[in-house]
Amino acid sequence: MFRTSPILRWRKYDERYNLVGVKCEKCGKLYYPKVALCSCGSSKFTNHKFKGEGTLLSFTEVSSGPEAFAEHSPYCLGIVQLDEGPKITAQLADCKIEDLKIGLKVQASFRKFYDSGEKGSIHYGTKFTPKY
Amino acid sequence: MKIGVIGTGITKFGELWDKSLRDLLAEAQLKSIEDSKISPKDIEMIFTGNMCADALSGQLHIGAMASENLRINVPSTRIESACASGAVALRQGLQAIESGAAKIVQVNGVEKMTDVSTEQVTTALMGAGDEEVEGFQGATFPALYALMARAYMHEFGLTREQLSAVSVKSHKHGSMNPIAQFQKEITVDDVANSAMVSDPLTLLDCSPITDGAASIILASESVAKKLNPEAVWIAGSQQATDTLALSARDSLTEIKATRIAADSAFKQAGISAKDVHLAEVHDCFSIAELLAIEGLGLAKKGEAGKHAAAGYHYFDSKIPINTCGGLKSCGHPIGATGVKQAVEVVHQLQQKAGKRQVKKAEVGVTQNVGGTGATVVVNVFKR
User: Fold this and answer.
1) B323 in the same domain as B290
2) What are the helix (H) ranges across A4-126?
3) The pLDDT value given to residue A121
4) A99 CA to chain B: closest CA distance, Å?
5) Domain that residue A75 falls in
6) Which of A65, A126, B31, B99 yields a CA-CA distance of 20 to 30 A from A1?
7) Is A79 within the bounds of a domain?
8) Is B72 exposed, middle or buried (0-12, 13-18, 19+ CB in 10 A)?
9) Rounded CA gap, B155 and B164, in Å?
10) Is some CB atom of chain A closer than 8 A to the CB atom of B147?
11) pLDDT band for position A117 (50/70/90)?
C-alpha cells in the first residue's frame, strides 16, 4: 500500500518537518508546498522556510478517518493561512473542536502522524496548535 | 454544438449485493441500446467513466470490458476524472462526434462501491484530492466540504436549517424516483439530528456509497434526426479545472471552475442563466449544491441558502434542481453520476420523468464536479 512506503514520505521530509516551501526569484511570491511554476511564469525559485505561525480560516472534526488515521478518530482538521500568505491543510492538535473558531491564531508543531505496523516506519509531519 | 441523445439506460441505484461491476455496466449499456432502437454493431466508439474500479474491485481496463459486453471490437476507453468521470466521458463522446471520427457513440458511467468497508471507500475517494497536501494530513471528502461549509456559514450567515433544506428537497424528489437509492422523505430535524460525520456536516448532508451505472447513446445531428424524432440536443459542453487541493485556492466559498465552465457552456449554447428551466448539480454534500447553484449563476453569491429554505428548487417551483433526488437521495455511484445527470435531464426534456416531471422543461443543465472543484463539467441540453 502506498501509504506504508517510507520513500514516498522521506523525499518530502524538509517540507513536512520544517515547513520549507519556495519563493519565486522573479516576483517574490511564496508557495507552500513547493511548485514547479509560478503564476508569473517563472520557474526559478529559492527555498523559503516559513515561520509556522498563522490564522485558522476554517475547521472541522473528522469523526471517521481514512484507513491510516482510523485509530486516531475523531480529530480536528483545518485550513491555516500562514502569516507569510500560503494556506495549509493540517490537523489541529492539543484542542477540542469547542476550542476552535475562525480567526484563531495557531502555530506549527512537529507531530507523529501514523505508523505502518510493526515492521514499517513511523510517519511524522506538522500539525498546528492554538495560541491562547 | 448540436449533438443528439438518442437513447438512455440506467440501472437501479443502491446497495446491489447481487450485481458485479460488469453486471451493472452491461445492464446500462444494453438498456441504452434498446432505448435508441439501434444494434450494438451501430456503435462506433465507447467511453466509460469510472473512478475506483481498480481500488475497489481490482479491475482496470474498463474500456475493453465495455466493448466486450456488446460483442464488438471498436475503440473503447475508460475515462477517469474523479467524481466528474461520467461527464468527462460524455465530453469525449461529444468531441468524437464533433471531430467527425464517429457518428454514433455510447457513453457509460459505472461504479461498484459496496463490496468493501467504508474506510476503504474513504481512502479510495481521497484519491480525488491532493494526496501530498490533503490525504497525508488525514483529510476526507466530508471533511474538505465541511471546511467549505463552515467558511460559507461564517461569511454569509448560512444557517443549519437552510443547509438542511437542501437534503429535505433531495429526498422529496428521490421519493418520486423509482431507481433512487433512498425513496423516503426526511425532515429538517432529521438532517440536524443525524450522526455528525465531519462537523458541521451530518450523515444526511452527505451523499451515500452507491452501486449503479448509466448509459446514453450520442449521435450526430443528421443521424439523430433520422433515428429518433424525440432526440434531445446537447448545445453546449465545457470543462474547467482548478488546483487539486482546496487550500491552494483563493476562496473556500466558491467553486471557481463551475463559473468558468458555465460561462463558456452557456455562451456556446446561446443561453444565459435566466433561460435555464432545470438543473442537475453535483450535491455530493448539501453545501456543494448551494455552491453549484451560485456558480451556475442561478443565485447571487451568498443567497442560495435562502432560496433553498424558501423552497425554490422543488420540481414544481421556480428553478427545479436535482429532480432525480440528486447525489444525496438518488445515490452517488461516482463514475456513473455525470451520465445519470444527463439521463435525468433528457427524461425531463422528453416529458418522461413521471411524478417529478417539470412542467416547462425545454432547457436543462448538468454540473458534475471532481474532487472539491478541481474538475467541473457543465452541459446544456435543449429540446
Assistant:
1) yes
2) 6-10, 13-18
3) 85
4) 13
5) 2-12+51-130
6) A126
7) yes
8) middle
9) 18
10) yes
11) confident
pLDDT at A76 over 60: yes
Whether the model pTM is above 0.90: yes
Which ipTM was obtained for this model?
A: 0.96
Q: What digits encode the pLDDT tens for the residues A20-58?
A: 999 999 999 999 999 999 999 999 999 999 999 999 999
Contacts with A33 from chain B: Cβ below 8 Å: 132-133
Query: Is A44 inside a domain boundary?
Result: no
pLDDT of res. A64: 86
Contact B142 A62 (CB under 8 A): yes
Q: Taking the mean position of all CA atoms in its chain, how far away is CA B315? A: 17
> Given A67, A87, A88, which is nearest B120 (Cβ)?
A67
Question: Tell me, what's the pLDDT at B126?
Answer: 93
A95 has a chain B CB within 8 A of its CB:
no
Neighbours of A94 (CB within 10 A): 12
Residue B220's SS3 state is: coil
Same domain for B44 and B54, yes or no, is: yes
pLDDT at A2: 61
Read off the pLDDT of residues B122-162 as tens digits, 9 standing for 90 and up: 889 999 999 989 999 999 999 999 999 999 999 999 999 99
Same-domain status, B222 and B278: no
Question: Is residue B254 domain-resident?
Answer: yes
Choose one of B232, B267, B286: the last residue of a domain: B232
Number of domains in chain B: 2
Write out pLDDT tens, residues B240-281.
Answer: 999 999 999 999 999 999 999 999 999 999 999 999 999 999
What cell was used for A40? 508569473
Closest residue to A70, CB basis, from B119, B201, B245: B119
What CATH number does residue A122 fall under? 2.40.50
C-alpha distances (whole Å) from B316 to each of B169, B173, B278, B312, B350 are: 11, 10, 10, 9, 17
Q: Which residues contact B352 (CB under 8 A, 6 or more apart)?
A: none
Catalytic residues of B: 83, 332
Q: Which residues of chain B have pLDDT under 70?
A: none
Which stretches within chain B are classed as H helix?
21-36, 53-57, 62-69, 85-98, 118-125, 141-156, 160-174, 188-193, 221-227, 256-269, 286-295, 304-309, 326-330, 334-349
Q: Nearest by CB to B196, from A63, A69, A90: name it.
A: A63
Which domain range does residue B343 map to?
Answer: 138-209+234-382
pLDDT at site B124: 93
CATH of the domain at B249: 3.40.47.10
Rounded Cα distance between B254 and B299, Å, is 12
Q: Which residue do the cell numbers 444527463 mark? A: B342
Q: Chain A residue closest to B121 (CA)?
A: A66
A62/B contact by beta carbon, under 8 A: yes
- On whether both B316 and B184 belong to a single domain, the answer is yes
* Beta carbons of A1 and A26 less than 8 angstroms apart: no
Cβ distance A62 to B143 less than 8 Å, yes or no, reads yes
Query: B119–A66: do the CB atoms touch at under 8 Å?
Result: yes
Contacts of A59 in chain B (CB under 8 A): 147, 150
